[in-house]
């Protein structure tokens, strides 16, 4: 089968590899549409000296199932999230997905829609409900809980806001740039939500967040979800945090030069989306707090199905997407555009059948 691998210089190659075979509790999915994420360029640049397969967000059709798979069969339309350690990536003709995080989708949901969700949606889930310990949507907040989302129009940030609203978390203060119009569609100003433009500079961001909080009677915030984790966002986030609050970011502090100025007293925690594939949290925590389920893969199981149900019923929306011409041939250009910051409030997706 055809598969894309990405080199450290972000040049991509389409190579021929054997079609993988599903093992126990695995599903072989014929990829119809696959999405992209900043991880597709960051992983080969920062963490690998070898070419790597890419593509984690998949909409496709079940081709075969492994032993122990009881709720999926050949021919099912599905959404799946590819585990990053799997030898073959989703930018390919076939991919392996674990059964617990592979979900049937009805005919009224497109493969393009579901290819915007898994990695970013699950990052939002782990960040909000594990790391920040916020109320789950089916046990929503009963009093105001301020939340700052830095990077409100990123896929992770947008999904975080959508989930937070379903958890009745307000006021939400979103930090956003040129995609401000899109971010405006996510918030509810009648409940105190507001937006701050990061293009005015870091000092203006801090001032804007504090002013937005003050409008609803708050001087600081207990919860900050920094979905950017670059360009000083970590310092801005810490500046509006209460003494007992927590910031969670999506990139290690080692990748942010300005993190050297971060006080050791700041409670900063890295959100690891890969937790949803594991039996224990990466940080070793096992206790249940505020109703959060201990086993992280349970969050993956529950929310993958909950996302699909929301799409089918209309109370949850996919991220805006752009179909890249050329199928898998378009991966290299899209990954380079992601690195260059050209994507704004949009997910790049690829239709495998368009590959030449």
UniProtKB/TrEMBL annotation:
<dbReference type="InterPro" id="IPR036291">
    <property type="entry name" value="NAD(P)-bd_dom_sf"/>
</dbReference>
<protein>
    <recommendedName>
        <fullName>Enoyl reductase (ER) domain-containing protein</fullName>
    </recommendedName>
</protein>
<feature type="domain" description="Enoyl reductase (ER)">
    <location>
        <begin position="5"/>
        <end position="346"/>
    </location>
</feature>
<dbReference type="InterPro" id="IPR020843">
    <property type="entry name" value="ER"/>
</dbReference>
<dbReference type="InterPro" id="IPR013154">
    <property type="entry name" value="ADH-like_N"/>
</dbReference>
<dbReference type="InterPro" id="IPR047122">
    <property type="entry name" value="Trans-enoyl_RdTase-like"/>
</dbReference>
<dbReference type="Pfam" id="PF08240">
    <property type="entry name" value="ADH_N"/>
</dbReference>
<comment type="similarity">
    <text>Belongs to the zinc-containing alcohol dehydrogenase family.</text>
</comment>
<dbReference type="GO" id="GO:0016651">
    <property type="term" value="F:oxidoreductase activity, acting on NAD(P)H"/>
</dbReference>
<dbReference type="InterPro" id="IPR011032">
    <property type="entry name" value="GroES-like_sf"/>
</dbReference>
<keyword id="KW-0560">Oxidoreductase</keyword>
